Amino acid sequence: MTEPLLEVSDVAKQFGGIRAVDGASFDVERGSITALIGPNGAGKTTLFNIVTGFERGDRGTIVLDGERIDRRPPHTIARRRMVRTFQITKALSAMPVIDNMALAAPDQPGEHLTGLLLRAPVARRREKEVRERAHELLEVFGLSDKAEEYAGTLSGGQRKLLELARALMVEPRLVLLDEPMAGVNPSLGRRLLDHMHELCERDGVTFLFIEHDMDVVMAHSDKVVVMAQGATIASGPPAQVRSDQAVIDAYLGAQVKA
Amino acid sequence: MTWAPFLALSFEAFGSLDFWIGAMTLAGIYAIFTLGLQLNVGFTGVINFGQAGFMAIGAYTMGILVADVGLSLWLALPIATLVTMAAGLLIGLPSLRLRADYFAIVTIAFSEIIRYVAQNARGLTGGNQGLLGFDSQWIDVSNAVQDGLAPVGLEDQFLAPLLIVTWLTLLVLATALRYLQGTPWGRVLRAVREDEDAVRALGKNAFAYKLQSIAIAAALGAVAGYFLALNLAFLNPNSFEPLYTFIGYAILILGGLASFFGVIVGSVVVYTLLEATRFLELPLSASQVAALRFVVVGLVLILLVAFRPQGIFGKRQEMVLGD
Amino acid sequence: MEAEASPAQPGALGRREGRASLRTTMSANPGLVAAGIVLAIAVALIATQGLQPVAQTGLNGLISGSYFALGAVGLTLVYGTLKLVNFAHGDLLTFGAYTAFVANITLGLPILLAVLAAIVVTAALGVFTERVMWRPMRAKGAGLLQLLLMTLGLAFVIRYAIQFVAGTAPRTLDVDVTSSVGFLGLRIGQTQLVVMLAGFAVLIGVGVMLRSTSLGRQMRALSDNFDLAEVSGIDTDRVVMATWIFAAGLAGLAGVLYTSSIGTMTPNLGFFLLLTLFAAVILGGIGNAYGALAGGVLLGLAQEWSTLLVDARWKLAVGFLVLILVLIVRPQGLFGRKERL
Q1: Which structural domain range is residue C130 located in?
Q2: Over the stretch B87-111, which tens digit does the pLDDT of each residue have?
Q3: Fewer Cβ atoms within 10 Å of its own Cβ: the N or the C terminal residue of chain C?
Q4: What ipTM was predicted for this assembly?
């Protein structure tokens, strides 16, 4: 295989004396599905925030497709076709579902005042494409009949689906999902996983996701990265990680403390 | 309760053309002013408490450029607009990154600084004596328009031309903003209002949109300032007290957040009421009547926000206040 | 009072050099650094302007600083406890001043009783607004903008109701505004001296109360972190009520002290003071009670010392400028924590 799509090396972050992330390093291979696991408080979400530019790490480097992206603001990182979702969904409730989708599309000159003024026909054409693509994706995710509804009227599970569908509007190479299955009923959850596999296999989209359900992680990922107390302590194929002594200790330790 | 003053009104006031021309000119001016607040608050989620300051910058820059520097009014208007937009960027750049409530405090402090300068930099602004002599070119135009109004019998109405130009400008601006709201640009703004992080995660520079929003609002404040200056024929710092920003908020809430045409209705209602109270026949002094007007403005603001936060025309689903 | 709350000067009077290193030191011990900066500015001013004017304006600054601090501490506690940016707080000062006027002039009560009346009646107004407006709105889950606009509306109602009743003509209390006392070459109005001494006595009392009584500690805890305080078993309802009594009562007192010191009151006095109070609150770190006390005194000094360099008519603008500079340079304030932003 060629060089990894995402390389995270020795990232650390302190909050007022607490080491939230303390030396995290891992790679995400192109076209793979990687799971990030670890006990509560291991620093997974903070690491996500650092990788996507929402927090600034104290040290370490993050390389996306051969280009350093640490210290860049979130929107420029997203424009490099790496997009994330949030643990608590950020569906824009006061906007219709279709607008949520269209918002995410890149390369829309109509999003700039100069583009509106000088490239109006291009903007109109692009908007038409965007809406078509949005409807396609909503169809795939079973949200077609909700297109014109305000996103606030969707159920929790539907919001998760919308957020994933919206992320795909960015035409991403890499999608980071923060607990995509949390709060989703099992049948919707299965659909979400199926979509993930399909996108990965058919379109070559790479996924990195945080998940707590071990069965899901073991069954659906090519590689598992394990974090504990801010550091990455193991990574490899699911079967290998499952029998790793350090991982077992970390999880048992966490359970004993809890 | 807001309707109570009407009962005591001498109905002559409502029959008089002077009253309506005066009140509707002010309604038009403050509708333009409040369009800026609507763009900021209703569509971007930026709480701008300094709109009166932007109005002052626009009006005074125009006045100084014409009266002191000797520029043509028609050249002064675009320059003053650009200056005001630059002021908007200047105040937005360091403070739009702060929390929304901090931004509110910064903008009101900024607007008070502007008013202090207008009051105290007497050499430049005429201080409390006021700034005069910037409207001769407008008066030429106004006279020509007035002559043209003879067929409809308005040739005696000195202020009719300003009313017409103010409302034409208002309608053009409201239509333009309404159009922008429906574009992809407007969509990003609304998304910023709801959740900046979601917008940034999708590759949009939320901060740049907030800056654009505040710069455009500043320009709208400036335009309102020009019409106010022409209406008063002189500039006085008292016209730019934070009070006027807050009347703008009353208009905004009354007309409903996230509706540009609601702003126009809100402004007509508020200025009809405010101006009508001048004709109240109550056993009160002028200062008491003035005080009573603002007690009512305050009560209306409280009651609307508490019991009908979407305003008269706002949509509940797009309600911004309850977030 | 604590070392933290000692008078200190904001790093805002044109000190731009060495800010980066300043920032790191400040996070370690902001109170000490702030005090150092005040000292440095005082020394620089003495060197250029002479000792006497600096001492005289400094004295004036402590006078106004005392009522700024009393106004600011309530504003910050209400913010911290209820997340309410109260634009009507300034008008509570006005309300206090006019209550004292009614007691002192209309009813002819002695000034001490009038002060007491101002505190009690303003505190009652604070409790009234909490019961009628803020508690129901909190129960509804009102948003930031909603609450902001309601405080604005309330500010209008209080200010213009006072104007309706009392008119716009300046009013005076029955205090001696002409005699003054001199010492060490400095002059201070007799009433102003009383204002300053009373103001600082109350300030120290407030500081001690916040530090050593359980109610005070609970108020600070709630102001610092409402949710945490609630789960840790503080009777939040009781503390919220106490905060209002405390905040509004001190605002009433500050209004009387301001009026006594300046000599007159008008219905918009509170609104003029409000932005200075916000400046003090933000300078001290919003929600931090000691910070507001220090911030108030600092602003008093900054405003008065500024008159040595620029015309006195710009005094009020100095407060606004400090506010904007603090927000740009150190938005969490002298004593605030960055995470709160």
Answers
A1: 3-340
A2: 999 999 988 888 888 899 889 989 9
A3: C
A4: 0.89
